[in-house]
């Protein structure tokens, strides 16, 4: 835990007692703050009481006594409307902040020069975050990994000169961290997402940009209009970013020529055969990770060795095993079409695609360019009819409804196909909430179904 000493002796309101909210409340209390914590959900309050936290109804509190409101990232700050606690904080004239901001303040107080890498982007940030941590560990560094990737940032060990914090930041967390100031800030991409929480793309992009605006050194993948504009603005301010681009070795400091990764035109690593980093999108992730750790002094030969041993992340283009010419890949984390675009682009043909769930705005129309190389699609969940309408006359499909039916049908069809290499790919292009509590549960179910199918056919799952 990181005790938050910067609010010692002061009264703090805290709303939202999920995983990160509980960790934040405990860290504030451990640092000497007087915390008034609350949540609208009775179950969350009960969990907090069971952990010894004192709760009070913020509806009845005297807000003039609070120094700040600490808000959980899942609670609306601006859109579709500010949460009632945000309005109470505004009326009281106190700041609204989150756990990333508390970490940044504690870092400045304890060890302002301690290395801190922060990563954001609409897609790819978890893989890049994990890869950066892996490369730094391969280089012999002591690494604390957390943030949006799973472990609440205030549950990590405290900042120290010999300890590197590698932290994934969502747009919600950045919005609550006005003084975010990493040693290295990484921005991967900006594509439409979370507009229900940010209102417009301009606002969403501006929030993402704050991570690199406050960084000592910015690393930006310049492959969309938004990131290119952010990089150009920084350059105009005399703060040129380290640029990366997965489709060119000349247009950026770090580029890719197929599987070859280059720095200033010279090859320093090869991703050929690294299954955990398959596809152009993972070349972008690898380039950004390489640039970030190089900015901290890690040599390119060490980076190359680390890339070759990266195990990948669960549910993100995760190889599950194979039988004869059929491979199984779990990309349950692909909760929007842009993520599934990256998965489909990683394979030449022979794709038996499982998709569907709770549809996001735009559906899968943007994936039309990949339809010719899909052998068959297997539709599940609420999006079935909408996706069937998009695929009609373009891709053979079958309405499966549930994942178990989809896996059985896709695996048997792939095994019977004449493709030299076939892949049964779960890349839903949808949220999971119609049938599963989260993408992890969906991916775990897929993993179990694949393992059972492989066992039935005398093959082993990886």
TrEMBL record:
SUPFAM superfamilies referenced in this protein's UniProt entry, alphabetically: MurCD N-terminal domain, MurD-like peptide ligases, catalytic domain, MurD-like peptide ligases, peptide-binding domain
Localization, UniProt: Cytoplasm
Residue ranges of domain Mur ligase central in the record: 119-293
GO MF: ATP binding; tetrahydrofolylpolyglutamate synthase activity; UDP-N-acetylmuramoylalanine-D-glutamate ligase activity
Taxonomy, superkingdom: Bacteria
Pfam families referenced in this protein's UniProt entry, alphabetically: Mur_ligase_M
Binding site for ATP: 121-127
EC number: 6.3.2.9
Reaction catalyzed: UDP-N-acetyl-alpha-D-muramoyl-L-alanine + D-glutamate + ATP = UDP-N-acetyl-alpha-D-muramoyl-L-alanyl-D-glutamate + ADP + phosphate + H(+)
GO-annotated cellular components: cytoplasm
Pathway(s) served: Cell wall biogenesis; peptidoglycan biosynthesis
One of the GO biological process terms: cell division
Function: Cell wall formation. Catalyzes the addition of glutamate to the nucleotide precursor UDP-N-acetylmuramoyl-L-alanine (UMA).
Protein name: UDP-N-acetylmuramoylalanine--D-glutamate ligase
Originating species: Chelatococcus reniformis
Originating gene: murD
């Amino acid at each position: 835990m990181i005790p938050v000493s910067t609010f010692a002796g002061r009264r703090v309101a805290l709303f939202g007692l999920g995983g990160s909210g509980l960790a934040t409340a405990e860290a504030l209390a451990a640092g000497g703050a007087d915390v008034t914590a609350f949540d609208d959900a009775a179950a969350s309050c009960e969990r907090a009481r069971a952990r010894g936290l004192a709760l009070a109804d913020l509806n009845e509190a005297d807000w003039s006594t609070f120094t700040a409101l600490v808000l959980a990232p899942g609670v609306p700050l601006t859109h579709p409307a500010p949460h009632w606690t945000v309005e109470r904080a505004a009326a009281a004239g106190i700041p609204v902040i989150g756990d990333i901001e508390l970490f940044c303040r504690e870092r400045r107080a304890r060890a302002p020069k301690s290395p801190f890498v922060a990563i954001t982007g609409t897609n790819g940030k978890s893989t890049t975050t994990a890869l950066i941590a892996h490369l730094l560990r391969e280089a012999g560094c002591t690494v604390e990994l957390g943030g949006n990737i799973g472990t609440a940032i205030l549950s990590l060990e405290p900042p120290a000169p010999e300890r590197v914090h590698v932290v994934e930041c969502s747009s919600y967390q950045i919005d609550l961290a006005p003084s975010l100031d990493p040693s290295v800030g990484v921005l991967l991409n900006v594509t439409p997402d979370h507009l229900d929480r940010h209102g417009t793309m301009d606002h969403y992009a501006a929030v993402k940009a704050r991570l690199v605006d406050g960084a000592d050194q910015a690393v930006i993948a310049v492959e969309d209009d938004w990131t290119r504009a952010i990089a150009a603005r920084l350059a105009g301010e005399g703060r040129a970013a380290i640029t990366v681009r997965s489709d060119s070795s000349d247009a950026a400091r770090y580029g890719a020529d197929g599987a070859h990764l280059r720095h200033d035109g010279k090859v320093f690593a090869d991703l050929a055969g690294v299954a955990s980093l398959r596809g152009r999108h993972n070349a972008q992730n690898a380039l950004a990770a390489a640039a970030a750790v190089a900015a901290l002094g890690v040599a390119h030969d060490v980076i190359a060795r680390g890339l070759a041993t990266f195990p990948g992340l669960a549910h993100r283009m995760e190889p599950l095993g194979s039988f004869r010419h059929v491979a199984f890949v779990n990309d349950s984390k692909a909760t929007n079409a842009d993520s599934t675009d990256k998965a489909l682009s990683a394979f030449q043909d022979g794709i038996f695609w499982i998709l569907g769930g709770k549809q996001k705005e735009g559906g899968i129309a943007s994936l039309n360019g990949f339809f010719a190389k899909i052998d068959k699609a297997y539709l599940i969940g609420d999006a079935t009819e909408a996706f069937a309408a998009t695929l009609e006359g373009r891709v053979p499909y079958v309405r499966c409804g549930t994942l178990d039916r989809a896996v059985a049908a896709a695996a048997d069809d792939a095994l019977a196909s004449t493709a030299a290499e076939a892949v049964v790919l779960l890349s839903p292009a949808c949220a999971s909430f119609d049938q599963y509590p989260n993408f992890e549960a969906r991916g775990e179910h897929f993993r179990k179904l694949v393992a059972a199918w492989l066992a039935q056919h005398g093959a082993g799952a990886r």
